[in-house]
Structure formats: structure tokens, C-alpha cells
Design a protein that fits this description.
The chain is α/β, with parallel strands linked by helices and about 220 residues long. The protein has 2 domains: about 140 residues, 3-Layer(aba) Sandwich (Rossmann fold), CATH 3.40.50; about 80 residues, Putative phosphatase, domain 2 (DNA polymerase, domain 1), CATH 1.10.150. Helices cover about 50% and strands about 10% of the residues. The protein contains 10 helices and 6 strands; from the N terminus they run βαααααβαβααβαββα. The protein has a 6-stranded parallel beta sheet with strand order 3-2-1-4-5-6, sandwiched between helices. Its EC number is 3.8.1.2. It is an enzyme of class 3 (hydrolase). InterPro entries: HAD-like_sf, HAD-SF_hydro_IA, HAD-SF_hydro_IA_YjjG/PynA, HAD_sf, PGP-like_dom2, Pyrimidine_5'-ntase_YjjG.
Length: about 220
């Protein structure tokens, strides 16, 4: 049914939540904070809000990377060098390339089915490339569309236009966008005019605007 699959990476192929938690441990420790669930959730609340603002066009990725740790440590009246903290966090994150259960097998099965598969990510380019390389999945894709190189973030239709301009044979009927973010992945695909599959790994039941909803990656094989 679908010949071309656009796959988000963070929390779709990579277990970003686990990678993020591991990457934050040194950041917390170096600044005298415990690795508590409360501290982790406080950071995530700020980070998720800022990425949501990026999806709305209200913030740039650069602003997120320089401001999120400032805002987080203000909660504890701690002054930090946010650029230094970001470098520590980024270095740790680059080393965490855990895949979501079934992700590697999914990519292999899609290739066996003759599907063309491409990354479609808003993540930091260097981090995504390193993690794909370290986890041995980089070469399983037919190409990579990462917003930092494209110049536009999902859900901006210009992101999807770039994908279509660089994929031979792509049309509105044979491309499926798969991801875990409602605004960037699902609404972005819908507004561009292509079908989408919401990966509802956490059971949020928020995928009413998606063409399909799955809770297990292997279920994607039943759709394509």
C-alpha cells in the first residue's frame, strides 16, 4: 500500500526517554542535584514545553539548546553555564543509542518488503547520525531528512516538501509518516496531505487525527 515510509527517530526508533534520563545523570550530579524522579520530571516539563513552542514556530532549536538548562536550574536557584551544561548533556546523549523494542527488526522487515525508508527527524544532526551509526541502523535507511540540515522543522510543510523533492517516485498516496509527536509528525503529515501513523507507545490515546495508531512497532507491518 505504501512504498515510502518516513520515520521519526526519537521515541519512535530510539528510546529517547531512557537516553535522556541517562544523559542527565552527570548534569544533575555536577550541579549538586540528586537523580530523583522529581528532578527528571521538572526538566522534562520545561524541555517538552520548549519543543512544543518550536513546533508552533515560536522558538528556534538554538534557543532551546541554550535556554532549557537555564530555566531548569533557576528552579533551584543555581546559576550555570548553560552552553557548558549542554555540551556535557549532548556528549552523554550521543553515547546512548538504545533502540525501542522491535525497531531493528522492523527496519529489516521493511527492507525485505521492498519499502523505501527514510528518517524524518527534528533532532540535532550530529547526535542523530552518531546514534544511528553506533546502533548499526544508519545504512538500513535509504536516506536521511534531519531538520537541522533541511532548514525547516516539522510540522513546517517545507520540511515535507524537501523530502518529496528528494525521493524519487514520492506522491501523496504512497508515502506514510510514522512518529510519536502529534503536532510535528501527525499534524505535519495531515496538513501536507499524506497519511500518518501515530506510535502511541505510552497509551495516551491522542492519535485521533492520525490515519492509523499503533502501540507496538511490529504492528506497522500490517499497515504497509
Amino acid at each position: 500500500m505504501y512504498e515510502i515510509i518516513l520515520l521519526d527517530l526519537d521515541n519512535t526508533i530510539f528510546d529517547f526517554d531512557m537516553a535522556e534520563e541517562n544523559a542527565l545523570k552527570d548534569v544533575f550530579k555536577l550541579n549538586g542535584l540528586s537523580e530523583s524522579r522529581e528532578n527528571l520530571e521538572a526538566y522534562r516539563k520545561i524541555n517538552v514545553y520548549m519543543w512544543g513552542e518550536l513546533e508552533k514556530g515560536n522558538m528556534s532549536k538554538g534557543e532551546i539548546l541554550t535556554k532549557r538548562f537555564d530555566e531548569f536550574f533557576k528552579l533551584y536557584n543555581i546559576q550555570v553555564d548553560s552552553e557548558k551544561i549542554e555540551k556535557i548533556f549532548r556528549s552523554n546523549l550521543d553515547r546512548n543509542c538504545q533502540l525501542i523494542d522491535g525497531a531493528f527488526e522492523l527496519l529489516l522487515d521493511l527492507k525485505k518488503m521492498g519499502k523505501k525508508i527514510y528518517t524524518a527527524s527534528n533532532g540535532v544532526y550530529s547526535t542523530q547520525i552518531k546514534r544511528m551509526t553506533d546502533s548499526k541502523i544508519y545504512s538500513l535507511f535509504d536516506g536521511h531528512f534531519i531538520s537541522e540540515r533541511i532548514g525547516f522543522e516539522k510540522p513546517d510543510r517545507r520540511f515535507f516538501e524537501c523530502c518529496f523533492e528528494n525521493i524519487d517516485g514520492a506522491n501523496l498516496k504512497n508515502v506514510l509518516m510514522v512518529g510519536d509527536r502529534i503536532e510535528s509528525d501527525i499534524n505535519g503529515a495531515k496538513n501536507f496531505g499524506i497519511d500518518s501513523c501515530y506510535f502511541d507507545r505510552k497509551g495516551t490515546m491522542n492519535g485521533k487525527f492520525a490515519t492509523y495508531t499503533i502501540s507496538n512497532l511490529t504492528d506497522l507491518l500490517k499497515i504497509v
